[in-house]
């Protein structure tokens, strides 16, 4: 079908080419031969009177015109999917669909584990992919690569709806046999101890790490971990100290010899929220899932 001279079927190909920036990879994703993908790129170049993708060294880069088109094309496709293409009526007992959510290991262990256990009883054929935070989670949501972000609200986009899940505070955590720390720890003592810190790959420091850095104090970081779930094991049998979300620290303290102390400085509470793309607002399946996640992961979830 053509609209003002443009074959609308090429919009999907254009979106994939601009995302992959590689004709071979785009062809694989679209289940096309490389020659067919190259031919589609040639037609798109002819229509827009622009190269769109140009070779630069060993990689291909977007032209300024392609950069302008990328976001608009993706939004058009998402809007068509969310508002025009109607899915079959949703029945949680029979629905089969993968739900993709960006969530840290903290959220996975303390919130998603019990919530998804409950959801699986109601919708046994729904599957969930819990994806660690990436370089730009908001861009993944914008592009429709994930259905939800379950992250602190400070990382959410102002352009899409969201709902508060719960708030949590922090605790200083040490091994139960740590001889250098009593029942409390002062800021001076805290800064002299060796620390286990968390820094997410390609994203940066964790929330409390970001706060400590802004507070103007440099910790003596002995070990940097890529996830919170590794921290208790790196404390065990040592005199190290770490800051952890209270809910997660309590979960591990029930299984390991850990002691939880008030942090030496007041760290703002972290407000976890669920965000979804505005075009998915009326998606019946996603609406059902998010309503149950909000209920099950809320401030006072049912037993």
UniProtKB/TrEMBL annotation:
List each copy of the HTH lysR-type domain by range. 6-63
What are the alphabetically sorted keywords of the record? Activator, DNA-binding, Nodulation, Repressor, Transcription, Transcription regulation
Task: Please give the Pfam families that the UniProt record associates with this protein.
Answer: HTH_1 (PF00126), LysR_substrate (PF03466)
Query: Superkingdom of the source?
Result: Bacteria
Q: Which family does it belong to?
A: Belongs to the LysR transcriptional regulatory family.
Name of the protein in question? LysR family transcriptional regulator
Organism, scientific name: Rhizobium alvei
């Amino acid at each position: 079908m053509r609209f003002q001279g443009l074959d609308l079927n090429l919009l999907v190909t254009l979106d994939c080419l601009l995302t992959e920036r590689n004709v071979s990879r785009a062809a694989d994703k679209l289940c096309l031969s490389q020659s067919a993908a190259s031919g589609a790129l040639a037609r798109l170049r002819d229509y827009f009177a622009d190269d769109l993708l140009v070779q630069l060294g060993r990689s291909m880069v977007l032209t300024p015109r392609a950069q302008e088109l990328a976001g608009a094309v993706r939004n058009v496709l998402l809007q068509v999917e969310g508002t025009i293409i109607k899915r079959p009526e949703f029945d949680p007992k029979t629905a089969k669909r993968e739900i993709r959510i960006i969530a840290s290991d903290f959220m996975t262990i303390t919130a998603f584990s019990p919530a998804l256990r409950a959801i699986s009883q109601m919708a046994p054929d729904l599957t969930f992919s819990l994806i660690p935070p990436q370089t730009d989670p908001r861009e993944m949501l914008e592009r429709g690569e994930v259905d939800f972000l379950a992250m602190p609200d400070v990382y959410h986009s102002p352009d899409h709806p969201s709902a508060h899940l719960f708030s949590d505070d922090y605790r200083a955590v040490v091994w139960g046999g740590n001889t250098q720390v009593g029942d409390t720890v002062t800021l001076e003592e805290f800064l002299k101890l060796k620390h286990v810190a968390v820094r997410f790959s390609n994203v940066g420091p964790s929330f409390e790490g970001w706060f400590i850095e802004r507070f103007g104090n440099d910790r003596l970081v002995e070990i940097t971990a890529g996830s919170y779930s590794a921290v208790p094991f790196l404390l065990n049998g040592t005199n190290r100290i770490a800051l952890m979300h209270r809910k997660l620290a309590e979960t591990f303290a029930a299984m390991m010899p850990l002691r939880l102390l008030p942090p030496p400085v007041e760290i703002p509470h972290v407000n976890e929220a669920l965000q979804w793309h505005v075009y998915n607002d009326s998606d019946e399946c996603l609406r059902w899932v998010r309503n149950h996640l909000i209920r099950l992961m809320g401030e006072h979830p049912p037993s």
